[in-house]
Amino acid sequence: MTHLEIQNISKSFGENEVLDQLNFSVHQGEFVSLLGPSGSGKSTLFGIIGGMILPNSGDVILNGESIKGKRGSISYTPQTPSLLPWRTILNNVLLGQELTGKKDREKALQMIDRAGLKSYENSYPHELSGGMKQRVSFIRSVLSPQSLILLDEPFSALDEFTRTDMQKWLLDMWEQTKRSILFVTHNIEEAVFLSDRVIILSPRPASVLKEFQVPFERPRREELLLSDEFLQFKKEIYQEMRHAQV
Amino acid sequence: MTHLEIQNISKSFGENEVLDQLNFSVHQGEFVSLLGPSGSGKSTLFGIIGGMILPNSGDVILNGESIKGKRGSISYTPQTPSLLPWRTILNNVLLGQELTGKKDREKALQMIDRAGLKSYENSYPHELSGGMKQRVSFIRSVLSPQSLILLDEPFSALDEFTRTDMQKWLLDMWEQTKRSILFVTHNIEEAVFLSDRVIILSPRPASVLKEFQVPFERPRREELLLSDEFLQFKKEIYQEMRHAQV
Amino acid sequence: MMNALWKQGWRPALVLILLFIVWETSVSMFDIPAWLLPSPTQIIEVGITDWPGYSHHVWATIQLIIVGFLIGSGTGIVVAIALHLVPFLRQATYPLIILSQNIPVIVLAPLLVVWFGFGMLPKIIVITLVCFFPIAIALLDGFRQTDRDLMHYMQMAGATRQQLFWKLEWPHALPSLFSGLKISATYSVMGAVISEWLGASRGIGYYMTLASSSYRTDRVFVAIIIIVALSLLFFLLINWLEKMTIRWRSSGEGGSSDAS
Amino acid sequence: MMNALWKQGWRPALVLILLFIVWETSVSMFDIPAWLLPSPTQIIEVGITDWPGYSHHVWATIQLIIVGFLIGSGTGIVVAIALHLVPFLRQATYPLIILSQNIPVIVLAPLLVVWFGFGMLPKIIVITLVCFFPIAIALLDGFRQTDRDLMHYMQMAGATRQQLFWKLEWPHALPSLFSGLKISATYSVMGAVISEWLGASRGIGYYMTLASSSYRTDRVFVAIIIIVALSLLFFLLINWLEKMTIRWRSSGEGGSSDAS
Amino acid sequence: GGNDGEESQELEEIQFVLDWTPNTNHTGIYVAQDQGYFEEEGLDVEIIMPGEAGADQLIASGQADFGISYQEGITEARVQDVPIVSIAAIIQHNTSGFASPEDKNITSPKDFEGKKYGGWGAPLEEAVLSSIMQQEDANVEEVEIVNIGDADFFAAVERDVDFAWIYYGWTGIEAELRGTPINMIYLTDYSEKLDYYTPVIATSEDMIENESETVQIFMNAATKGYQFAIDHPEDAADILIEAVPDLDPELVKASQDWLSPRYQDDAEQWGIQELEVWENYAEWMLEHDLLEDPLDAEKAFTNEFLPGEES
Ligand SMILES: Nc1ncnc2c1ncn2[C@@H]1O[C@H](COP(=O)(O)OP(=O)(O)OP(=O)(O)O)[C@@H](O)[C@H]1O
Ligand SMILES: Nc1ncnc2c1ncn2[C@@H]1O[C@H](COP(=O)(O)OP(=O)(O)OP(=O)(O)O)[C@@H](O)[C@H]1O
Ligand SMILES: O=C([O-])O
Ligand SMILES: [Mg+2]
Ligand SMILES: [Mg+2]
């Protein structure tokens, strides 16, 4: 069943055409990644899905209903952590639930622990490193109750090991809860490792260049990363993107 | 000749020990990368070198003189872009020069163009995408006149192609000017591709775990990335880091 | 420009007109005598017919307001900068600044007169006293709230104290400055009127006192309406200056949240 | 606590003492007559010996200040919130707010007394008028400056208008609120003194007027010193409240820039 | 005194506004209150200092029942339809005049020429100066008139002002006490028309029409108060000092001593007002363009509530 449908979305800021007739969909419980050059309009698209930005034309359908200009239907990790500076880490993490759900301190504390931030529950954001803030922002959105999660480069500030660990954790959670995920990343490996489908956007004005169905079995193990099929698949995507950018 | 020397630096924030007897040096004109887990203290170390944060013990020597607590000796790309919201892109880029050098509009405009931001000279930061802001911040520090450049994950928000392009550009500039560079990244490939030496930090409290002299000839070409020696070297570093984190 | 003025202005105009209507009808309904509260039409009539008689008072006050506000806000800005840049000064002179706001005019008046005579100077001092305080406080608070990350970058990049101030703290505090200026612009008009009690032979405050002492309530209200109009004008001017100065923000807000 | 007070307080205390010394010596050097400007020692002497005679005036004024400031700042906050949340209201009533700041007390006074008699009410109205304006303006500007990124996140995450306000805009505007409160706290003392001109039989303003009309300049200065001391105390109280409320910032500033 | 609680509940509440701060012009009222004269008449009088509010409008509008006013004020007010009426002259003759420090050598209106006068900027002042200077063929054009606003006499003459308009009974006495001798030029010495009643006790037309009984009993008590002040200046001063302890006792005593004989002065009874005085002054004002319309002097005052007068 289709969960989210992007229908012919176009958007420009003044003269600057950003999105051009964008079309794709995300099925119920699907994990979809978006790959596209910097400045192609990925964050803008998230803004449109979240109801923050009105497209010039086109529509956004969630569960069969238009959510164009309507807010609160998605859970969101923004590209910059956007933590409230006057709240402790714990209270920042609980913010998403406060807005549209019920607070669950226990679970929040567990997750903070799981993300390697034990003992920082009562710190303030400015006392954290860049990667630590990003993890807090990630936990906040994962804790939010909505069934569609938008993640905008959630792991870009993490070292490879922490990143892999967070990826595994995300997959675990996703497999348990079967929420739909739309994931923006610049890391092709990450996109392939995590997703059911990878959507490649063209440079600005962005439209869908190509979609790849990821053929690997789940649950996926770290070993997959070193397999030939995986490397081959990565290369294919790489070529496709390079082609578009030159 | 030694350009920068980190001597026995220790630092804690309250109970939280961050740096523990850190020791290393950067030679004149050398390109050194720092790899270390998120939250290990890399940005803190940069703050100490920049004179913003006083270490609990140890010293920072630049060209034979202590610069502990002294500011203005380095050029810096912070982990978050930190652009002044009331300045246009062009004027933001010129800021570093305004502070400690002479403004060179021509060169600034050229660089903005080279970074793929042509036509954004007169935009304000909030009109840019995350990756675009990061590039602006990068240009700003490259334009600053100091002979030591500290780069804190300058390409983390860029797609692979833009990233590779920026890396090549950085290497070109570095080869021409022979300034010394201390580079923080979470991307092992990037570290190896760019650097003369890679320094691995342990998890918090951070000390130097190991140093790797990178054996590859310069100038380096993209083909290197696919060579077996390169992959082998990457793997070695990967193993070393993994070892430390488990 | 005219169009924008109209777009912004019709709502307050409407409210003012409504207010006038309520006022007019209640004056005639409750039979309130003119010496107690004249009706708007009476006030407007007197305002028009007496204009030649009091126009020079209006100009005199406008001059006083402009000079006083410029000096007062200049003082406020200088004080805030000095106190911000020299922490010792800040800690030491805060009480003096508060003190300056609490010397009642009836006490100050004789001293000012003895020291400075009956000319412009004591009046300017009164307006300055009224104006500088909101600006100084707002600006000081603006300086203090400078963004942490930006501060960090500037210091790392070797900004001198002066550069830090002019390139970061000052532009960052501009919105706060305008917040203070708006408060002060409004007060400067009142300050000018009050200062005219320190011996004036012209000015709208003088005109009002005379009107009041000869029981011409209608003229008193003409004076009030002029005072209010001047304040409004002055406030709008500052508002407009703010829009011109802080373009990067106002233009941005439209862009980033263009959904309703 | 005591220690912190001392650490903060010795500089202003020093400056005040210096000021007193300069004052004392110039009074005796230039032979200034006591009826024009009494010396600090004279003032202190009178202040101490007359204390039983005027202490009840001080309490009366303190009461008035507290009640007036609470109502005035409450009004300011409510007005700012209402104008912020209801843009139509903001555009329509801005002129009325400025108007409220420009009705001279000499005009307002008889009207207030005619409408509300000689009790507490007209006095509270005067203090409220004086207090609410700086708070309303500062708070409104604070709301407007809410961080763009945080706003974006909150809206994307589905915050209702109310949540947006209470969880983001309000805490974000707290520093601005305190900036306004500091200005108003200072004015509330002056407002209380002025309001006592509206027919009072107690209060420090009343005491000062009587002293002034019987040419007891020494007592007038006792009154001023009490007024200033009250303002200072009140200002420091707000400052302390700010420190308690906005802990996340003050504690942070020490941490992020601990190099000199 | 000596009323118990029950009786005092039946007292009629009366509000009396002063013109500004309490002073010896008001002694009779404070005496009547202290000595229980009001209470005997069944009145509970609250004395109010109006501050900026200004007494006249409060009296006319009924916010206060009685208060202190001036002939100058009532004349102008009535021409502007403010329904206020004078019911007693507190002092028979105008005790105001132009004062200057002795060393300025201003002993007659002629000496005003070339000097600086400090006033509050009313057209009235120039007219008065002109009137009394005319008596000596001096020209008011030669006087520099500056507005000194709220500054008091002593502060003003300390600067560049040479002379100012004061009430001798308060400011003049203060100068005596300070030992700074002043020259005083009384208005009454140079123009009969300027011998107006200042201050007076006033009430509203409405009170006179509808509550004449209250006005009558109020005046009974007030008259007794002023009579007491005439007869016992020292006791009266003490009563005022006790009632308003924040006043300067020395000044009150000296002022009371000077003023007590002047309340009634040459009149046959305290408080009495003559039509001629009201007419003269209004005429004078009209001549000098200080009034827009003529005053109906008969309606501006009444003696009918003075005890002993036929009602
Ligand atoms: N508020 C705005 N006003 C004007 N232009 C904007 C605004 N927001 C985004 N843009 C423009 O839209 C384009 C796409 O921006 P967007 O942030 O969506 O890119 P992105 O794909 O997320 O890039 P990145 O990977 O670098 O984050 C850019 O050209 C940017 O300049
Ligand atoms: N101002 C501060 N106050 C308290 N603790 C701080 C402060 N700044 C940093 N820290 C702590 O210091 C440690 C190192 O932070 P730092 O930012 O240097 O990490 P990093 O190596 O740059 O991490 P990342 O790769 O995530 O950016 C963290 O535990 C952080 O919580
Ligand atoms: O002093 C006054 O504010 O009127
Ligand atoms: Mg983006
Ligand atoms: Mg970091």
From TrEMBL, chains A, B:
Record-annotated ABC transporter domain positions: 4-228
Regions crossing the membrane: none
MF terms in GO: ATP binding; ATP hydrolysis activity
Lineage: superkingdom: Bacteria
UniProt key word Nucleotide-binding: yes
UniProt KW keywords: ATP-binding, Nucleotide-binding, Transport
InterPro entries with a match to the protein in the record: AAA+_ATPase, ABC_transporter-like_ATP-bd, ABC_transporter-like_CS, ABC_transporter_ATP-bind, P-loop_NTPase
Pfam family, one: ABC_tran
SMART domains, sorted: AAA
Protein name per UniProt: ABC-type nitrate/sulfonate/bicarbonate transport system, ATPase component
Species for this entry: Piscibacillus halophilus
Upper taxonomic lineage: Bacteria, Bacillati, Bacillota, Bacilli, Bacillales
Automatic annotation (TrEMBL), chains C, D:
Domain of life: Bacteria
SUPFAM superfamilies named in the record: MetI-like (SSF161098)
Membrane topology: Multi-pass membrane protein
Pfam families reported in the protein's UniProt record: BPD_transp_1
Keywords assigned by UniProt, alphabetized: Cell membrane, Membrane, Transmembrane, Transmembrane helix, Transport
Signal peptide (residue range): none
GO CC term, one of those recorded: plasma membrane
InterPro entries attached to this UniProt entry: MetI-like, MetI-like_sf
Transmembrane spans: 62-89, 96-118, 124-143, 177-200, 220-241
Subcellular location: Cell membrane
GO BP, sorted A to Z: transmembrane transport
The ABC transmembrane type-1 domain, residue ranges: 58-238
PANTHER family: ABC TRANSPORTER PERMEASE PROTEIN HI_0355-RELATED (PTHR30151:SF20), ALKANE SULFONATE ABC TRANSPORTER-RELATED, MEMBRANE SUBUNIT (PTHR30151)
Protein family membership: Belongs to the binding-protein-dependent transport system permease family.
Protein name: ABC-type nitrate/sulfonate/bicarbonate transport system, permease component
Source organism of this protein record: Piscibacillus halophilus
